[in-house]
Amino acid sequence: MLKIAWSPKYAHPLPAGHRFPMEKYELLPEQLLYEGTIAAHNLFEPNALSEEWIVGPHKAGYLQKLTELSLTKSEIRKTGFPLSAALVEREIHIMDGSVQGCLFALKHGIAMNIAGGTHHAFSDRGEGFCLLNDIAISANYLVQKKLAKQVLVVDLDVHQGNGTAEIFKDNPAVFTFSMHGAANYPLHKETSDLDVPLPDKVGDEFYIRKLKEHLPPLLDQVEPDFIIYQCGVDVLSTDKLGRLGVSIEGCKERDRLVLELAHQHELPIMCCMGGGYSEKISHIIEAHANTYRLAQELFF
């Protein structure tokens, strides 16, 4: 059974009219339910993740400042969000959604978090719409609980997973792979275990070819026993922040490639949604929905 983390907290943490497109967190489950891709029993509501699993990937002092709402104005500005208790609560629930998603993936082969993919959160700060890093927290949970010996992070958001790279730079149990726009945010890139920077405006053929060049050999090289997949849809040609030229069908082909490899190699995979900033919300929802449709098609 496909299990998907979703909470009403995902959709309403910000003041009305804020520019960041939170509406997808409500519309995506509605679309999946309406079309019959999922039923209500596929959804589970996460709780607030225990602090013991946040500290480690994140420094205790940073978590304290976050929960006490004592970040400086400069630190708040870098996150891109107006800081509030509701926003921090949302983030802590997202962390549990990804951790629980990993546990469901160990049982069922795959699980999803409708939020998550917060790969710009560093050990000691937030950036780029990310306060805490669910990818890092989930990977650390798996390793510390001895549920996985080697985690492979496959980050295909258009922006480099800089926070994840920083957190795991000295941890060989987690291999970070990021394929992203070379000229895109962040201006200063961290060093992942494998970075594949892409030039602006590349289309489907180039994008898929590059992914095929790098991901299948990684499975032999890294020998992971768990994959965390950041499947942002800001690679789309319609994305306001993306700068690439990938179509909705190309994005679906990308997801098919990743999910098929996980299924063929019997590797549990947890998918977190990442970014998506197309002008038309329908493009964002369709591209994200394809990931869930493929999960049902390939695994169940």
Automatic annotation (TrEMBL):
<keyword id="KW-0378">Hydrolase</keyword>
<comment type="similarity">
    <text>Belongs to the histone deacetylase family.</text>
</comment>
<dbReference type="Pfam" id="PF00850">
    <property type="entry name" value="Hist_deacetyl"/>
</dbReference>
<protein>
    <submittedName>
        <fullName>Deacetylase, histone deacetylase/acetoin utilization protein</fullName>
    </submittedName>
</protein>
<dbReference type="GO" id="GO:0016787">
    <property type="term" value="F:hydrolase activity"/>
</dbReference>
<dbReference type="InterPro" id="IPR044150">
    <property type="entry name" value="HDAC_classIV"/>
</dbReference>
<dbReference type="GO" id="GO:0004407">
    <property type="term" value="F:histone deacetylase activity"/>
</dbReference>
<dbReference type="InterPro" id="IPR037138">
    <property type="entry name" value="His_deacetylse_dom_sf"/>
</dbReference>
<dbReference type="InterPro" id="IPR023801">
    <property type="entry name" value="His_deacetylse_dom"/>
</dbReference>
<dbReference type="GO" id="GO:0040029">
    <property type="term" value="P:epigenetic regulation of gene expression"/>
</dbReference>
<feature type="domain" description="Histone deacetylase">
    <location>
        <begin position="18"/>
        <end position="288"/>
    </location>
</feature>
<dbReference type="InterPro" id="IPR023696">
    <property type="entry name" value="Ureohydrolase_dom_sf"/>
</dbReference>
<dbReference type="InterPro" id="IPR000286">
    <property type="entry name" value="HDACs"/>
</dbReference>
